[in-house]
Amino acid sequence: MQFRYRARDKQGQLQTGAVEAGDERSAADTLMKRGLTPIAIDRSAPTSAALPGWDNIKAKVADALQPKVSLDELIIFCRQMYSLTQAGIPMLRAIEGLGDTTQNKSLRKALKDIHEQLERGRNLSAAMAKHKGIFPRLIIAIVHVGENTGQLEESFQQLAVYLENEQDTRKRIKAATRYPSFVLIALVVAMFVLNIFVIPTFASMFERFNVELPWATRALLGSSQFFVSYWPLLLALMVGAFFGLRYYKETPPGRLMWDTLKLKVPVIGSILRRAMLGRFARSFSVMLGAGVPLTQALSLVAEAVDNAWMENRVIEMRRGIERGENLSRVAKQSNLFTPLILQMISVGEETGRVDTLLLEVAEYYERETDYDLKTLTARIEPLMIAVVAVMVLILALGIFTPMWDMMSAYQGR
């Protein structure tokens, strides 16, 4: 954020201007490094608010068109920063070198801006905070703690390990859900093809024989006629529902409803919940190990879990801590953890090793998630086979039963 200041230089002359900083104290430190003695520091309005409406919209569109920074690129960035800082390379040279070598345009632009801010005397975490669309708050907070404790290289190492585990969990979940997703898509496509192209052919044949058709055949013919007559409307409704649901998911009520429903899906919901609890425990452990205060760590972890329902539970835990309750009690009140995990948190609180035991909790949940993901395909296959069998049964009853009746009638003549 930007601060307006009035200060005296070494000659006692009054100086005024603006400085970028994370808070007033950081702004004062920056001015003192420049040889200025601050008299007054006031927060100025954000520069984005000064933009006219159309310019603001154009700025948002331009940001949206910028290539996203993937989790893999953030991992590489943290690994490189750890290696460079550990080797003793000055921060300015490290950021400049990474900005010149990175392939992602958004990350390169952000690193060049960070380099310019560092040259003006701003610290790294405050410069990274200007690019929250690229660097999550969790990364910024741990970098800030690393700067204040003189352990910046260890902070980048912690972040790299955390992000690698997060990437591994995401890949395993995607790989496990790929098979059922393809099956469902294939079933939907097959339903459209059968109703629009296959069943109408049999319908014209049945009409010529003028026989009474069984209920399954009448149902198939009715659905086929509906698809043939209204397929443009159905297609438009599907596209509209897709984008409408996507827009609704971006709103706070829609995101809460969607994230709650995901956790209630049979088989998959329990896996997603364990994966989120593992993410919560690992990120919370990283934050506490880096020295982030407990309430601030809970606020940052609430965003890291990436689920509105669980985010609300974690925020309630933070409020309980602010009321003076201990961690084990608010964890029990949240109804998120099993008794075994609650006992581990309680022991960690008593021994002062909460971050270490939370890391063990994360590994416990990740092992459970890994086992569930390995057996997910075997658990979903019977359900998929049952759905396909029902479709085949309806098609067989609807198409082949009247054909057999007609053949029997023809042979009996």
From TrEMBL:
Which part of the chain is the Type II secretion system protein GspF domain?
77-200, 280-402
Q: Which segments carry the region annotation Disordered? A: 1-22
Annotated Gene3D superfamilies: Type II secretion system (T2SS), domain F
Protein location? Cell inner membrane
User: What's an example GO cellular component term for this entry?
Assistant: plasma membrane
The superkingdom of the source organism is Bacteria
Taken from the record, one Pfam family name reads T2SSF
| Name by which UniProt lists this protein | MSHA biogenesis protein MshG
